[in-house]
Amino acid sequence: MYQLNNFDSREQLDESLADNISKILESSITLKGKASIAVSGGSTPKGFFKALSNKSIDWKKVTITLADERWVDINSDDSNTRLVHENLLVNKAASAKFFHLKQGDELCEETLADLNLAANNALLPLDVVILGMGEDGHTASLFPCSDEIEQGLDVTNINALMKIQPKTAPHQRITFSFAALKESKNVFLHVCGDNKKQVLDQALSTHNIFEMPIRAFLHSDVIDTQIYWAK
Hints:
Elements: E1 2-7, H1 10-32, E2 35-39, H2 46-53, E3 62-66, E4 68-70, H3 80-87, E5 97-98, H4 109-122, E6 128-131, H5 149-153, E7 161-164, E8 173-176, H6 178-181, E9 187-192, H7 194-205, H8 215-218, E10 225-230
Helix pairs in contact: 1-2
């Protein structure tokens, strides 16, 4: 299931999404004493990050993580961790906790097992998931070109976090699986621009999730994906 929310400008989208997310996080804090959110990287969410970072909520009770991360140094321009630290973990949100997906030099089985244990104990299920979408219809690092895509989209996958090696994009990745992401009650897809609207229209037109993994969220009977789009 999905609902398409169109905005006249990216600024309006950023403010509306930030308002919505902050209310969800506040509600989770009131209910459970804590809240968790997974965000996505790239240039699209920078304005949203700034808007959200200025919201007055009890940030020290919020844990922020990434839906996926490239296995690169935090100082790299390709690091989504760096992006979040510079654009979201600032202003009022500077006191939030951050759950690092990229830990250590090598993404070995031991590291992955430790990360899965930590995520299951301290983070999951996520209160909010904010997804992006690539030109090929990938989301998080669930790439249609990867050998791991069947495991990544398997609803019975017991691994919340998994290693991905895309064939059409650089860098080894670590990503939350579809099985873990779908457990969030608040799933958002944040996309901007005419090119991404064309990709979105293609994703909505048919149901083959292995061709375009974002379809697993858009066409699910149990996930209410809120699409936020602006030109």
